[in-house]
Write a structure and sequence with these properties.
Helix content of chain A: over 70%
Largest sheet of chain A: none
Oligomer: homodimer
Number of helices of chain A: 5
Shape of chain A: elongated
Structural class of chain A: mainly alpha
Number of strands of chain A: 0
Order of helices and strands of chain A: HHHHH
Radius of gyration of chain A: 18 Å
Strand content of chain A: under 5%
Chain lengths: 169, 169
């Protein structure tokens, strides 16, 4: 059987499945990160982003519907690796003043991955004329960028505070 | 033996080892991506970034020296996953008009990961007063951001061109 040449539609669908898997994985990781942090603001930020991520999963399901495909994930080794790194930080820095700085950095690496992925999906969706899908993806991209900014602000506070604790110790 | 509490210095060193591993992994992946692409501009961009990455590895070795540590990598599951995804695109989209768009997106996901990691290292380095290390890390961060911009521009051209090829086919 000759293989059909793969098109930009296939790439869009392929990456959509990758991101769907990633968002669901993030949904399982965020409560662990919220539980691990020693900082109330960071805990609240992880909780808030967990709720947002539920909405992002629902949006992705609408994007699948818009291209007449079944919502289905595809194992995404990148997010598995990113989440594994967050887990390593929790394990190695448990009880340490640097834990929160490490958790924040791990969360920002995840956000940057998502920003890259949604950016690509939006560019391809525009080229394919998938206007409805593009609007949904743009709404999520804005949330991811806002989360990244929130994490950057929290990181500045956390890193300063922890460095002071170390000096005082 | 009681474990020493881990500090921001430990987190900096830990993440430096992670990024050192990542840059070396990227050095092996870029020639494969350059070989796979059908686009001469993209091939040149991957080649150029490979040469830059060699310089970035050398800079990281200077950062290790600046904190009196041996240059040493630590397995980074995130970069392994990101590079694996690039490999999947090469395999699944070989000979397809969408291959280059997929390669570009995979490369941008790697750049975003690096931008997140260098951003964290710079913030921690500033807090720790590691001025020399921070300058080196900032030089690399600027290169990564410039590469990301180059890839975005190339992506716009590649995606348009490939969509037109599909229409003409």
């Amino acid at each position: 059987m000759a293989k059909e040449p793969k098109t930009l539609e296939d790439l869009f669908h392929n990456t959509l499945k990758d991101v769907y898997f990633a968002e669901k994985k993030i949904l399982t990781a965020l409560p662990q990160m919220a539980k691990a942090t020693q900082n109330a603001d960071l805990e609240a930020a992880f909780e808030k982003h967990r709720r947002e991520t539920e909405g992002q999963v629902a949006r992705l399901e609408k994007v699948f519907a818009a291209i007449d495909k079944k919502a289905q994930g595809k194992t995404c080794p990148a997010i598995n690796g990113l989440v594994e790194e967050g887990g390593e930080i929790i394990e190695e820095f448990k009880g340490s003043p640097a834990l929160d700085a490490g958790l924040l950095a791990a969360a920002q690496a995840v956000e940057h991955y998502e920003i890259a992925r949604y950016g690509a999906l939006i560019a391809w969706g525009e080229e394919l004329g998938l206007d409805g899908a593009v609007s949904l993806l743009e709404a999520t991209l804005e949330e991811e960028k806002a989360t990244d900014k929130t994490l950057t602000k929290l990181a500045e506070g956390v890193v300063n505070q922890e460095a002071e604790q170390e000096e005082a110790a």
